[in-house]
Write a structure and sequence with these properties.
The protein contains 9 helices and 2 strands, in the order E-E-H-H-H-H-H-H-H-H-H. With about 140 residues, the protein is mainly alpha-helical. The chain has one domain (about 5-130): Annexin V, domain 1 (Orthogonal Bundle), CATH 1.10.220.70. A two-stranded antiparallel ribbon has the order 1-2. The longest helix is centred in the C-terminal third of the chain and has 13 residues, at about 120-130. The protein is globular. Mean pLDDT is about 90; it is low at about 130-135.
């Protein structure tokens, strides 16, 4: 599935979740070497804006590394706790970030939620923490 965002007069299209996550990241040599880094700060901003609108459930349906070829992905998805995920299942990455920054995200609530949050979901939220665009 492709993701897109317009910034200024340019429309940026990200071919898949892996590319979107990489382009939303701060500039890193590894992403540049892999050909996944944003070409400019404007593209990075576009990727973060697009990422804010991605439903958290998409990370369960579109693994960054295909389930069939990656043992870690199989482990993460196989051990995912749907009941723990349920309270945030309808949220986007941006809404989840906002919720995490609210008083509702108390320690006990976070402990109960933890088995339902995948590493990719946490990484996506952390990329938004770097930028600040708020979306729900």
């Amino acid at each position: 599935m492709a993701y897109a965002q317009t910034v200024g007069r340019h429309r940026y299209v990200f071919g898949d979740l892996r590319t979107l996550l990489a382009r939303a990241s701060p500039d890193r040599s590894g992403d540049r070497l892999a050909g996944l880094a944003a070409s400019a700060e404007e593209e990075r901003v576009a990727a973060r804006l697009a990422l804010a609108n991605v439903p958290l459930s998409r990370f369960l349906n579109e693994p960054v590394i295909p389930y069939e070829v990656d043992e870690v992905t199989r482990l993460i998805l196989g051990s995912h706790d749907a009941a723990a995920f349920a309270p945030v299942a309808a949220m986007t990455v941006g809404a989840f970030r906002d919720w995490l920054l609210s008083d509702a995200a108390a320690s006990q609530v976070l402990q109960e939620l933890a088995p339902g949050v995948t590493p990719e979901m946490a990484a996506a939220v952390s990329k938004l923490m770097l930028s600040g665009p708020r979306h729900g």
